[in-house]
Write a structure and sequence with these properties.
Helix 2 packs parallel to helix 4. About 25% of the residues are buried. By secondary structure, the protein is mainly alpha-helical. It has one domain. The protein has a two-stranded parallel sheet with strand order 1-2. InterPro entries: Dolichyldiphosphatase_PAP2 (IPR039667), PAP2/HPO (IPR000326), PAP2/HPO_sf (IPR036938).
Length: about 190
């Protein structure tokens, strides 16, 4: 009996890749700022820190993520069927993202890892970089996505362009549901034979 092995294939989206690159740039800028400002962490905690605290990298990353995601939610995800429901879930997700970023920022001060100034500067830098990166991606890179996705190396790596799909979440959901139903019908018909 011949054993069939399945390779796990991972595909990526140009938008996801550019978001990841933006997150790496955000972290790099945080390291540069920490070494330029060179402000130590609060001493109340009693521990010795080898890393500077200004700006807070946790706060900066969370606000980068929240601001980029909220802009993505507003400008990139559109579903036409029910405007009121779309608006409601967008508001709920946006509030959730902002709340999560605020909780992380507060927790850094509460746990005495950072001062309020360190956390607030991290939040401001993160928001600026998140908004700026969103503009760069959607003004400069998005028009190039179809061309990049057609390169042979991208086809081999299964890097795709979804920039023309108005709501990628709905698209993925409906296609997965359709495929699952088709496979289920095929399995059922094979069993009945």
């Amino acid at each position: 009996m011949k054993r069939v092995t399945r390779r796990k294939i991972v595909s990526a989206d140009n938008g996801t890749i550019t978001f990841f690159v933006g997150a790496l740039i955000n972290e790099g800028i945080n390291l540069v700022l920490k070494n330029i400002i060179a402000e130590p962490r609060p001493v109340q905690r009693g521990g010795l820190y080898t890393e500077y605290g200004m700006p807070s990298s946790h706060s900066q990353m969370m606000w980068f993520f929240a601001s980029y995601s909220v802009l993505f939610l507003i400008f990139r995800l559109h579903h036409i069927s029910n405007y009121v429901m779309e608006l409601l879930w967008k508001v709920l997700v946006a509030v959730g993202l902002i709340t999560a970023a605020a909780i992380v920022a507060y927790s850094r001060v509460y746990l005495l890892y950072h001062s309020w100034a360190q956390v607030l500067l991290g939040a401001m830098v993160g928001m600026l970089l998140g908004c700026g990166w969103f503009v760069v991606v959607h003004v400069l890179f998005t028009p190039l996505f179809p061309t990049v996705a057609s390169w042979s190396v991208c086809e081999r790596l299964m890097i795709r362009d979804t920039s023309l799909i108005p709501n990628i979440l709905w698209f993925e959901y409906t296609h997965a549901r359709t495929e699952s139903r088709a496979r289920n019908r095929k399995l059922t018909s094979m069993k009945s034979q």
